[in-house]
Amino acid sequence: MAQAIINIKGITRDFPLGEETIKVLKGIDLIINKGEYVALMGPSGSGKSTLMNILGCLDTPTSGSYILNNKDVSQMTDDELAEIRNREIGFVFQTFNLLPRTTALDNVALPMVYAGYKKPERESRATEVLNQVGLADRMDHKPNQLSGGQRQRVAVARALVNHPSIILADEPTGNLDSKTSVEIMNLFNQIHAAGNTVILVTHEEDIAAHAHRIIRLRDGIIESDNSNRDIHN
């Protein structure tokens, strides 16, 4: 039976702007099951970035409930959210967000430092995931010694290192050329095939086409939520 990893009910998010209130999310209901591969799409201003920030526990909703892996995260404090983020969510950003003076290995191990793992465990696990993303020979390189695609692979390895419940990727190919984009998307396909839940935020149809389910937002509500008919599970 399908197990819900994300269960959102009636999520709204308002932002005060002077005397006015901008209603960005207007009552979102969404269930994502363990092991799904979902693309979140929508034009600029549709609310997809705000929804992603809430899904990623980077922001809290104005109202509504958010159950992540059986925990109600909608009412948590900032400290509690930080702990959940580090344990449950692996982030991959468009801009890689790597520490420039730190090797690939140490960049990947960083979430394990926050999680309190000892150095031998950190190095062993970071080595394992760098192998997984095809960078066994680049572990001692710093970001400026790597290509854009290699940097994004380091970021993907870092996202995987703590065995998170979900991988949340925000425009992960936004800064990459088309050939490298294909390689990175193939990597996400492998990560999903290995049993990970992947949520991809993108405005590019060809990137969303890799996902098995495509959710489109418009004006703060879910406009459509469909299986990707081009992919036969």
What are the salient characteristics of this protein?
233 residues, alpha/beta, six-stranded mixed beta sheet, four-stranded antiparallel beta sheet, globular
Describe what is shown at a glance:
The protein has 233 residues and is α/β, with parallel strands linked by helices. The protein is built from seven helices and ten strands.
Question: Helix proportion of residues, in percent?
Answer: 25-40%
End-to-end span in angstroms?
16 Å
Number of extended strands: 10
What is the global morphology?
Answer: globular
Secondary-structure-based class equals: alpha/beta
- Identify the strand order in the major beta sheet: 6-7-8-3-9-10
Provide the succession of SSEs: EEEHEEHEHHHEHEHEE
The helix tally amounts to 7
Biggest sheet details = 6 strands, mixed
Low-confidence stretches: none
| Proportion of beta-strand residues | 25-35%
Q: Quote the average pLDDT.
A: 92
